[in-house]
Structure prediction request, 175 residues.
Amino acid sequence: MGIWGWVVAGAFAGTVAGLGRHLAILLGRAYRPERAGAMGSPAQGVLYAFTWGMMPWAKESTRLHLLAYLRGVVFHIGIGAAFLALLVSPWRAQMAPALRWGLVALTAVGGLAGFAGLVARIAEARLRTLSTPDDFFSVTLVSLFTLAAGAAWVVPPLLPVFYVLAVATLLYIPF
Prediction:
């Protein structure tokens, strides 16, 4: 494993430690019972919440803002592809071209969707008032990371840029 492998592994360890700290704080809080009275079967409620309740048509905001929903889905698929590209990057030369180009396409489209969401946050007054500086920073960082994942697979000299953005993204996750 080269120097970048160790740097990325260290950043990943920092991410896990930070998320572990958040989890420990959360689990250390006092339990507060639900305020609403129980109705119906708890098992049916869980089943609905994790199946039909997750469907786009079950959410009013998704029905009203379908394009924003789809843009978010594409963005998150691109993020997943970028992390997959990071994980398998040491073996990118041995991968089948179809898999390589599939990752490039997913990361490129995902990164563009992220920047489209950023433009929407800037252009739409309602979104602008809801957005914090952290929203702008994190969407920009993750969009750059996602685009860099695909670019580094097409232009190998960009691999260090991808790794720097990966380290920054990993270290920013717990915050």
